[in-house]
Design a protein that fits this description.
TIM Barrel; eight-stranded parallel barrel; alpha/beta; single chain; 8 strands; isomerase; about 270 residues
């Protein structure tokens, strides 16, 4: 299934997103929580069911280290509420951002994250919801997450030891690391979602993604490896930043669908 994250069309509302994605041949959507709050969870579930749209992700929960100004318990309670929303939407996964180190030593930040995840995973297991940690490139996301690579993500998953916990792999964040391809077979059993992004250079400062195929992320090779390793889940697109701001959303979606059709055809052969 091919899906689009609502972050790619940030100025559209949910109804515009669904209509626009369907027009360009997508059948899945990655829901962004602020847009969901604006529209209403139950109303959104009805709209998506009416258009036979699958929810490939709900984004995001986290900040357990206090990096976004919330206390630990507030962040955990917010995540538990998001688990329940994900269940209503029948979302494939709920994305987790660890939070920045926030002046903590790394071991303390990791213990705090694991403590939060154990509590949230217990609720997720009750509701049949999968949680996915997203490693974020340090060049553009130190304030969002101290978890920056696949190896440290796997370490946290092993420490928490919950069947509901896995990984969302965003190729923009990990795809410019030459070592990441070697980790993909180890990651595949825990992989809940692949998000495709691209960039012309390594992230530095604000995220700046370009149209798929215009950058240096080896998305074709990555998809080939994860599929050979058994991944059969959705492919979700996330495109935002200065390099795509001048492109209309319909141009962006049209280019993306054409690129993906060609890419998936090459990977399947």
């Amino acid at each position: 299934m091919l899906a689009v994250s609502q972050l790619s069309t940030l100025r559209w509302d949910l109804e515009q997103d669904v209509a626009g994605y369907a027009r360009h041949g997508f059948s899945g959507i990655g829901i962004y929580r602020p847009k969901l709050d604006d529209y209403g969870v139950d109303r959104a579930a009805e709209l998506l069911a009416e258009h036979s749209f699958a929810v490939t992700s709900l984004s995001w929960v986290g900040g357990f280290t206090g990096s976004d100004g919330r206390g630990f318990n507030d962040a955990v309670l917010d995540a538990m509420a998001a688990v329940r929303d994900a269940a209503v939407l029948r979302a494939d996964t709920l994305i987790v951002l660890a939070g920045g180190r926030n002046n903590h030593i790394r071991n303390h930040a990791r213990r705090t994250l694991c403590k939060a995840l154990r509590r949230i995973c217990a609720v997720a297991e009750e509701h049949g919801v999968k949680l996915s940690i997203e490693p974020i490139h340090p060049g553009c996301g130190d304030e969002w997450s101290f978890v920056n690579d696949l190896q440290s993500t796997l370490d946290i998953i092993e420490r928490v030891n919950s069947p509901s916990l896995g990984i969302v792999l965003d190729t923009y964040h990990i795809g410019m690391d030459e070592e990441f391809l070697h980790w993909l077979p180890d990651v595949a059993p825990y992989l809940h979602l692949v998000q495709l992004g691209d960039g012309r250079h390594c992230p530095c400062g604000e995220m700046n993604r370009c149209l798929l195929g215009d950058g240096c992320v080896p998305n074709e090779k990555l998809l080939q490896i994860v599929q050979e390793s058994g991944y059969r889940g959705p492919i979700e697109i996330e495109l935002l930043g200065e390099d795509v701001e001048a492109v209309s959303y319909h141009q962006l979606l049209g280019h993306t669908k054409e690129y993906l059709d060609g890419l998936m055809g090459q990977v399947s052969h």
